[in-house]
Design a protein that fits this description.
This protein is an all-alpha fold. The chain has helices spanning 9-43, 50-63, 66-91, 100-118, 123-137, 155-170, 174-208, 214-229, and strands at 143-144, 147-148. It has a two-stranded antiparallel sheet. A hairpin with a 2-residue loop joins strand 1 (143-144) and strand 2 (147-148). The chain is globular and about 60 Å long. The termini are far apart.
């Protein structure tokens, strides 16, 4: 007689953790896509896609376009500083729950929006502040299961997606095939999340105008509150 398969509580908890990581990663990718598209429309600069800014910086240096050099260099440095700050925050032993990071990013976006409503802020300061916030946000979810992910830009996501798809296609090991398939699905959904955010930005920008960055800030606050209520630790 076949013995019933009993799921270990540890395995069930692990599966639930991976699903939560996946949902959060998609949610953050959607916000990153939205903010990145907003930055591209308003300031002609990416605020989370540093590969594009690095290309712009290199081309601007060779053509002596000082304005682009300053803007691109500033946003790259501030994005790096944001990742540094977010990582330090995640390693700070006094902070028991990283949900605080949601509120910090939301706070920066709201603070910028309020200041920009009353005063004219030049492009360099704008991309510096928003780029810094996106760098911090990129440290909230860094993996889905065993697969490393970046929620703020898609070059690495597409690279990993193609690699996992190739592994799934070529391997004869059943466990490796399943793992690669699972990773590929996670990465594909992450890419779609970023794409959806970028798609929505131009439409909402027409309606929200000066308050366009309040929308992702409110989403982050709502998510942070929801995680707090559900007692979910990152």
């Amino acid at each position: 007689m076949e013995q019933p398969i009993i799921s270990s509580p540890k395995i069930v908890a692990l599966s639930g953790s991976v699903k939560m990581q996946e949902r959060l990663a998609i949610f953050l990718a959607l916000i990153a896509g939205y903010v990145d598209a907003t930055g591209l429309i308003q300031w002609k600069t990416y605020v989370s896609f540093m590969s594009g800014n690095t290309t712009s910086l290199g081309a601007a240096v060779s053509t002596s376009k000082l304005g682009i050099i300053i803007t691109s260099f500033t946003v790259i440095i501030c994005f790096l500083l944001g990742i540094y700050a977010g990582t330090c925050l995640s390693l700070w032993k006094r902070i028991k729950n990283q949900i605080l990071t949601f509120y910090i990013v939301a706070g920066i976006l709201i603070f910028y929006t309020i200041i920009a409503y009353f005063y004219i802020i030049n492009n360099v300061v704008s991309v510096a502040m928003v780029g810094f916030s996106m760098g911090i946000m990129n440290t909230i979810v860094t993996s889905v299961g065993k697969q490393k992910v970046n929620t703020d830009f898609v070059t690495g996501t597409l690279n990993s997606l193609a690699r996992n798809t190739a592994t799934m296609t070529m391997t004869t090991d059943k466990a490796e095939k399943e793992e690669s398939k699972s990773n590929a699905v996670h990465l594909l959904l992450l890419w779609f999340g970023f794409l959806a955010g970028a798609f929505a930005a131009p439409f909402l920008l027409d309606y929200l105008k000066d308050w366009t960055l309040v929308f992702p800030a409110l989403l982050l606050i709502f998510c942070g509150l929801l995680l707090s209520v559900l007692h979910i630790k990152l």
